[in-house]
# Entry
Amino acid sequence: MGFFLVAAISAAARWLFGGEPEVFAAMVTALFDMARVSVEIMVVLFGTLTLWLGLLRIAERAGLVDALARLLGPLFARLMPEVPRGHPAIGLVTLNFAANGLGLDNAATPIGLRAMRELQTLNPTPDRASNAQILFLVLNASSLTVLPVSIFMYRLQQGADDPTLVFLPILLATSASTLAGLLAVALAQRLKLWDPVVLAWLGSAALALGGFMFVLVTLTSTALAALSSLLGNLVLFGVIILFLVAGVVRRIPVYETFIEGARGGFEVARDLLPYLVAMLCAIGVLRASGALDLLLDGIRSLVLWFGCDGRFVDALPTALVKPFSGSAARAMLIETMQTHGVDSFPALAAATIQGSTETTFYVLAVYFGAVGIRHARHAVGCALVAEAAGVVAAIAVTYAFFG
# Structure
């Protein structure tokens, strides 16, 4: 509702004061274009969901998901107290976070949807997000990515001498967004993050991440890009082999089990379509109305009026559209690289922003839409806190590294 009202006000202003009546045609075109894009996304998701839900069914029957859930039971008993220890959702949540961290989006989304459905089985009010589901969604929206391979690829395509130059800034900024998201949810849900078990797990994770960062920064850009590609693909294929071998060892009929799990792929993708149409059409109308452009011009004028360094403003288009559309943010990033130069300050800031934040409203529509949740409670607010923290951190570290 807010998106459509803001779009209507912006379009009326452009028509009455700017003499641009064509804005209404642009909004109507965007409305139908986004409806078509929603179907295209659903078709793509159908294939990946079918594949990964089949493989996850094998992992579940082989006991891998239960084993992971038992291992992490003490931690999630503090972070998700309503989820029983050893519940399959815990193992699936962990697999999803691992896939996201390695930039394996094609595996992370299907696993995440399966995890959300498991959490939904524990939800006493099916149309209202539970605390556990909100924490899971916000951490997904915060986009903690250790190897942002896609950003390296965009920079390489635009002719960057060192495509991995933004690796460390992205890692610092995405860590800040994840921490902010976790703290926002902890505050809203009164989670005790200072519990010794939570501190031990988070401290160990921070040490492991810091050690990994130390190793990576010693590599050349060519070696880092090669390692990113190798590690991502090796882990992805290794997980598939692990699932299959575990199934054979446990004497599970692997093929039949895969088919049993894969049948759910169509149902999940089909149920997502109405939520995707609603969210993406609202986003498309907002973008076409010019509201985001007006906001950007206002920010630029305010920054210059205060006499501050305004170079970061040219990177803000990526930040403003990222919560709404990943493809639009990608287009903004490439446009910034082409306009200002791939290694210019705005382009480096935009690349860091792109790698440190997630498409919040798309994630909201997909994950909650898959289980029929209509009342998000504090999920949107906490996710936007993480998004804002990621953008601020991205700009700050870009000044620190390249300012």
The chain has a mean pLDDT of 82. DSSP finds 19 helices and no strands in the chain.
